[in-house]
Every structure is written in C-alpha cells, then in structure tokens.
Amino acid sequence: MTSAAKTVDEYLASLPDDRRAAIQAVRQVVLDNLEGGYQEGMSYGMIGYFVPHSIFPSGYHCNPKDPLPFAGLASQKNHMSLYLMSLYMGSDGAEDRWFETEWAKSGKKLDKGKACLRFKKLEDLDLSIIGEAVRRMPAQRYIEIYQSARKGKK
Q1: How far apart are CA 19 and CA 23, in angstroms?
Q2: What is the mean pLDDT of the chain?
Q3: CA dist 116 → 57, 70, 82, 86, 153 (Å)
Q4: Which terminus of the chain, N or C, has less C-beta within 10 A?
Q5: What CATH number is associated with residue 16?
Q6: SS3 8
Q7: In a domain? residue 38
Q8: How many CB atoms lie within 10 A of CB 128?
C-alpha cells in the first residue's frame, strides 16, 4: 500500500498506534546507523532513504529524476516491510549471505524476499542486525556496487 503522505511525519501520523510505534523504532535504528551520504524522505509512497542527486547526479536508472534508493520502510496491508536494497545488489551476494548468516544466529524467523524484510510486530526483528546492515553500506560503497551491477547489465 502506498501512501499519499508528502512528509515522513504525515506518513507516521497516518498509521495506527501499534504500527506507528514499530515503524518509528525501525526508523530510529536506520537513522542511527545511516551515514551522512543518505537522506530520508518520502519515496515510492513510503519512508525512503536514498542517495541524493547532489551526491549521485545520475539518479536511479529506472527514472533518473529519482534519487538512488537505498532503503524503504512501509506499513503494508498485512505486514510491515523494511526494504534494504544492499541485500539485493551485487553479483557476488556477499551482503545477503552475511545478513542471512547473522539472522540465523539470532534465532528469529526470517521472512524475507530479495530485499524485503516482512514483519508483523517489532519483536519479529533483530534490530542490531538491521543496524549493522545499514552501517555496513556507506553511500560511496553503495554507489560503487550499484554502478558495478549496472555495468553488468549493459
């Protein structure tokens, strides 16, 4: 479900209390571990974290008018989602393997797509692993992996 909210505060205010609390907690973990090369804002109808055009002028290849997306946080119809594009990118899959190995050690059930972590309540998540996944991907490294992946597609 995409939101028509124009700001992160509007988005959060539109959520039911229980979901707002969970989304705010995950948001805080992302913000606490995000390095300075990223910005937060509304993107694709959810809270988004992206590399702005001031740092990566080319933007996102699917629509160069959009900044390069890094992560997203959303309340969906049947669950909440955290999208971590760094788990999906890269030909070697090292970040995804690291993430799944660490998650297995946590003892929590992993409900994951390619880059999407689905959860119904905050307790479903290991916030320390999420924080480390964000911290492991400084903006410049993310840009380099993105550009390398794009070269392989041409």
Answers
A1: 6
A2: 93
A3: 26, 12, 6, 11, 22
A4: C
A5: 3.90.1150.200
A6: helix
A7: yes
A8: 12
Residue 1 in domain: no
Number of structural domains found in the chain? 1
For 110-129, give the DSSP string. P-B-SSEEEESSGGGS-HHH
Residue with tokens 């988005």: 11
* pLDDT tens digit sequence for 81-118: 999 998 987 657 889 999 999 999 999 999 999 889 99
Question: Quick check: 49 and 72 in contact, CB under 8 A?
Answer: yes
Cα–Cα distance between 75 and 121 in angstroms, integer? 11
pTM: 0.92
Q: How far is CA 148 from the centre of its chain?
A: 20
End-to-end CA distance of the chain: 32
